[in-house]
Write a structure and sequence with these properties.
This protein has 67 residues and is an alpha+beta fold. Helices cover 25% and strands 30% of the residues. It has one helix at residues 28-44, and strands at 3-8, 49-54, 57-64.
Length: 67
């Protein structure tokens, strides 16, 4: 299984904006490292919070991207 981030608004609605990454990560650590670098750009694209998924299973979330 790979790990992916689900991008959401504060109302738990999916953000599906052009240009949002659809990257898959081989490990949870890789996914968490990436979000640590990309969160500011995601905020600029209208993402308020994220959920980490492994396949269909939610690992955790929602996690706010706001400081």
């Amino acid at each position: 299984m790979s790990f992916i981030w689900r991008f959401e608004t504060n109302e738990n609605e999916l953000v599906d904006a052009p240009g949002l990454p659809a990257e898959r990560f081989p490990t949870q650590a890789d996914a968490e490292s990436w979000i640590g670098e990309a969160w500011r750009e995601l905020l600029d694209q209208g993402v308020d919070q994220v959920r980490l998924l492994e396949g269909d299973r939610e690992v955790y979330g929602p996690m706010s991207l706001h400081p």
